[in-house]
Amino acid sequence: MDKNLPDASATNRKLVVLSLGLLCILQAALNISLRLALYSSDAPDHDAVIRNLKEERDQLKRKLNTFDSSDAPDYDAVIRNLTEERDQLKRKLNIFDHYTQEGWRYFRSSFYFISSVKKSWGDSRDDCLQKGADLVIINSKEENEFTRQFRRLFWIGLTDTETEGTWKWVDGTLLSTTTSYWHAGEPNSYFSTNEDCGETKFHEVEDNWNDEKCHWQNFWICEKKVA
Ligand code: MAN
Ligand code: CA
Question: For residue range 120-169, what is the model confidence (pLDDT) as tens digits?
Fold first, then answer.
């Protein structure tokens, strides 16, 4: 073999070593560039995070400063009101139970006691007062119809004893001309007899009232208003 000619196998070995060397360098370069790429996209930007948190904090501070506590519901007051309402309803229910058990009839915010015996107007009124009520005061057509349905002569809380011809309810109010239900020709103090007390008499018509002598014996109706 010619000694001046390079040994083919030696050349091959050099090439293999060179190739391996190059591969190693490439591998290292790839490794470094991949790592750089990976970190630069995924790594948290601490500065940005801090910036955002600060901004959030400042927003909350601003909200807190402008927060108007008068907008917030006063829960204590709500509870106080509801408790008061509940107690009122309880009291109403107790009153309702009491009166209905005693035989009173409820109609439009009032309880009515219908007597089963007859007395003079004054004694009838005393009975109502003793019951914590008074003779019925009629303020509406409906209330008058309520009393008329019983088709009975009843004393009502109307009198002109104080001043003849001036009819007043037992609470002192004057009888209004728009809510009076005198029967035609009444009140008449019949043939100059002293008729100073109001009664329901003419059941067949809406205008059913009559003035009658107060010592006369009649059934009566007491009324107790509920607040
Ligand atoms: C009776 C009494 C009187 C009434 C007349 C009506 O005499 O009730 O008050 O006015 O009847 O006819
Ligand atoms: Ca009369």
Answer: 999 999 999 999 999 999 999 999 999 999 999 999 999 999 999 999 99
Question: Which residue has the least CA distance to atom 7 on ligand 1?
Answer: 190
The last residue of a domain, from among 73, 101, 129: 101
Residues 27, 111: one domain?
no
* 210 C-beta closer than 6 A to ligand 1: yes
pLDDT tens digits, 51-87: 999 999 999 999 888 887 777 788 999 999 999 999 9
Which helix (H) or strand (E) covers residue 107, if one does?
strand 105-107
* Range(s) of the domain holding residue 47: 8-101
212 lines ligand 1 (CB under 6 A): yes
User: What protein residues have CB closer than 5 angstroms to ion ligand 2?
Assistant: 188, 190, 195, 210-211
HSE toward the beta carbon, residue 16, CA cutoff 13 A: 6
| Burial environment of residue 169 by CB neighbours within 10 A (0 to 12, 13 to 18, 19 or more) | buried
